[in-house]
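Please complete every field before forwarding. Incomplete forms are returned to the sender.

SECTION A: IDENTIFIERS
Entry label: holo-160
Bound molecule: coenzyme A
Molecule representation: SMILES string

SECTION B: INPUTS
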Amino acid sequence: MTLTMETAATARALAEPTGAAYRIQPMTADDVAAVVAFMRRYPEVHFCEWEDETLLAQAVRRQWPPASFVCRDGDGTILGAVIAGSVGVRGTISHVAVAPEARRHGIASRMVRRSLAAFREGGIRRVFLFVVADAASGRAFWEAQGFRETQGESTLEADL
Ligand SMILES: CC(C)(COP(=O)(O)OP(=O)(O)OC[C@H]1O[C@@H](n2cnc3c(N)ncnc32)[C@H](O)[C@@H]1OP(=O)(O)O)[C@@H](O)C(=O)NCCC(=O)NCCS
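SECTION C: PREDICTED COMPLEX
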């Protein structure tokens, strides 16, 4: 395939930096159990009991273009992951985490940029997410990605 100048520039912006010791790849259904175990290590992620692995694997299988990503080092150890999906015409990012030793190297930003690019490619124009109220670093991260608090709306929810 011949890339136009614009798509080549986008591809470069989304690629890992030259010489990076990690790879970011779309999450597959086979990755889900390991990603869930990874997310559960970090209390700030608030991975909930109701987040069913089988459902998550089904969602990952159905998703096109893929919006959830896993970052691994050269040995295949998970360094980070982002779980994203869509609800109707809105995109949502459920969780993002990076292993403490790999933080502040732009890994989460790169994964999130790839999720947002996938949403854009699929026609989605608005993305929402929840941040735990006392998670200052999570909030700072999302603000650095351009997310702002929703004005004039509250979240309502119910368990089924
Ligand atoms: C939040 C988290 C995913 C960030 O991952 P990361 O790979 O270190 O993030 P990046 O390197 O892409 O950071 C991008 C920018 O976000 C902001 N940021 C990231 N971590 C931050 C922190 N702890 N405090 C303040 N700002 C932060 C900075 O502006 C940073 O840019 P800079 O490093 O040039 O200053 C990671 O710290 C983490 O896994 N935390 C535990 C789980 C968590 O809180 N998840 C989010 C729940 S809402």
